[in-house]
Amino acid sequence: MTQFKAIVTQDVAANRLLSLSGGNGVPTISITELGGTPDFRSTGPLTEGQEVYVTINNAPIWQVESGQVLEAGAYVEVGENGVIVASEGTGIGFLAEPVEEGGLARVVRKSSGSGEGVQGPPGPQGPKGDKGDKGDKGDTGEQGQRGPAGAKGDPGENPFTAEEVTAIRALIEDGE
């Protein structure tokens, strides 16, 4: 949960969508423009010139006053005076349950805002990451087919002299 001080620039009813502006010094908050992307919502009535502490608690569902009858699952966007109205696109989120005009709608917020404009090109590829740990040794695969017989190799030079060959033959013939 984060908290900061801001100045309210106009009278705001409770449960309306708000936007932040300024920032050099004390920021200001005002009702989000028609079709805009809200930063937060009012939880009570606010008065022009009032100094308030804004608490950001990252709630995924906001209670916001509805400017019209809406069904559960309807995509919504910011309407006049910071209420929610039906969106032709995906808007800022969708409703968790149906709501009557003037009732408190439970808006499930989208994490990326209203999706204004076209998506830009992808950024440049990042640097190569560090080499990862060596993985476990895999299972032994099946035995492959036997390959064709190779060519008969060169017998090479005989390491024995003619006398040694004769002597070895004599020993074999004598049975020793």
Overall, the morphology is rod-shaped
Q: Main β-sheet: number of strands, strand sense, barrel status?
A: 5 strands, mixed
Mean pLDDT: 88
Task: Give the strand order of the largest sheet, numbering strands 1, 2, ... along the chain.
Answer: 4-2-3-1-5
Describe this structure in a few short sentences.
This protein has 176 residues and is mainly beta.
Word description of this protein:
The protein is mainly β and 176 residues long. It has a domain at 2-109. It contains one helix and ten strands, in the order E-E-E-E-E-E-E-E-E-E-H. The protein has one helix at 162-174, and strands at 2-8, 17-21, 28-31, 40-41, 51-56, 61-65, 75-78, 84-86, 93-95, 104-109. The strands form two sheets. The chain has a five-stranded mixed sheet, with no helix packed on it. The radius of gyration is 40 Å and the shape is rod-shaped. The N and C termini lie far apart (98 Å). The model has no long low-confidence stretch (mean pLDDT 88).
Key structural traits:
176 residues; 5-stranded antiparallel beta sheet; mainly beta
Show the helix and strand layout:
Elements: E1 2-8, E2 17-21, E3 28-31, E4 40-41, E5 51-56, E6 61-65, E7 75-78, E8 84-86, E9 93-95, E10 104-109, H1 162-174
Parallel strand pairs: 1-3
Antiparallel strand pairs: 1-5, 2-3, 2-4, 6-10, 7-8, 7-9, 9-10
